[in-house]
Design brief:
Blueprint: H1 3-30, E1 36-37, E2 41-44, E3 56-57, E4 60-69, E5 78-83, E6 89-94, E7 98-106, E8 112-122, E9 138-143, E10 149-153, E11 158-162, E12 174-176, E13 191-196, E14 202-210, E15 216-222, E16 225-231, E17 238-244, E18 250-257, E19 263-270, E20 280-281, E21 284-289, E22 298-306, E23 310-317, E24 327-334
Length: 338
């Protein structure tokens, strides 16, 4: 075989190989990626650390709880929580810019018994790259009526809307219009609480941005329109997340670190008809979680309403990636009124 013929064959083979690699890359960028499977250990915990534990606190009935642990360094920092429409899949966001998700297992009465199929993926920016640095601080998560996922971020204050499942994890987000006043929030004091109301509005509450009367700034969003509201937290507490009921009412999760360096949480009920422009939102306490109950830095709340079994409530804590804190996931049932 002549030298030129040999080089021609080599060149042709190299070109074919390059075309194959290019085609393979093109397929990977236009088809769903495989989620990143991780191993998470779920250790069941009693709600109250006493010999005779109670299962009721306020208007909540404790069903189950778990400490979630993983050797994967990306796991932790869970700051926003959502449960799928069918009550089966749990999705969370972390303040280091990751989606974390798993299938939940339940007993016939709705009690959570475990998890399977844990996945983790980076949140993407509108340009398709993964979020990083100041853009990675995801703090709140709400599932809208169409199934799309809205994430609130601190540091660089904004809301991004991601596609509904099953493409959420690899979708690029669309920015959601926010009021100009949100830019005045402290870097770590922006939108912690976000909830999608059943009428299509979003409500957002800030953690530290104060209005002139000392209340915390919030807004109700509808398309490009925003209506200012104020939130009156419990003494020493700040709003950490929110979740809407199908009747339009709102549950707000509040938290605080006490003088004894222990975490406490409150859940407050807000009537839906009070959520309007100019409202001074205060709510009614329905539960307070503090030691010796199982409690940590709760930052996420999600609701699942079963047509027969009732309303289930889930709380998740942010461990701040600190060894002596925990990622706690607790499940409650809202006691029927009357």
């Amino acid at each position: 075989m002549g030298r030129f013929a040999f080089f021609g064959i080599v060149a042709g083979f190299a070109l074919a190989l390059l075309l194959l690699v290019f085609a393979s890359c093109s397929l990977r960028t236009t088809s769903p990626r495989t989620f990143g499977a991780i191993t998470v250990e779920a250790i069941e915990v009693p709600f109250e650390a006493r010999d005779r534990p109670r299962n009721e606190i306020g208007k909540l009935v404790y069903l189950s709880g778990f400490i979630l642990k993983s050797t994967d360094p990306r796991f932790g920092g869970l700051s926003g929580l959502s449960v799928s429409e069918d009550g089966v899949r749990l999705t969370a966001v972390s303040d280091r810019g990751y989606w974390i998700s798993a299938q939940m297992r339940h007993e016939s009465d709705g009690r959570l018994t475990g998890f399977e199929g844990w996945d983790i993926e980076p949140l993407l920016a509108p340009d398709g790259t993964r979020v990083n640095g100041a853009l990675a601080d995801a703090e709140g998560l709400a599932r809208d009526r169409d199934g799309s996922m809205i994430v609130s971020f601190e540091q660089v204050h904004r809301l991004w809307r991601y596609a509904p499942a099953p493409t959420t994890f690899y979708s690029v987000p669309a920015p959601v219009a926010v009021p100009a006043g949100l830019a005045r929030a402290p870097a770590n004091g922006g939108v912690e609480a976000i909830a999608a109301l059943p009428d299509g509005r979003l409500i957002i509450l800030t953690e530290e941005l104060r209005r002139s009367d000392g209340t915390l700034a919030g807004w109700i969003l509808k398309g490009d329109r925003s209506e200012a509201v104020s939130y009156v937290p419990s003494e020493g507490f700040v709003p950490a997340d929110g979740a809407a009921l199908k009747n339009g009412d709102l549950l707000v999760l509040e938290r605080r670190l006490s003088a004894l360096a222990t975490w406490e949480a409150r859940i407050k009920h807000v009537a839906g008809d009070s959520l309007r422009e100019g409202a001074r939102i205060q709510g009614v306490k329905i539960a307070r979680i503090q030691p010796p109950f199982a409690v940590d830095n709760f930052e996420g709340i999600a609701i699942y309403e079963h047509p027969q079994a009732g309303t289930f409530l889930y709380l998740v804590s942010d461990d701040n990636y600190i060894p002596f804190q925990h990622t706690l996931l607790l499940q409650f049932k809202l006691r029927r009124q009357g």
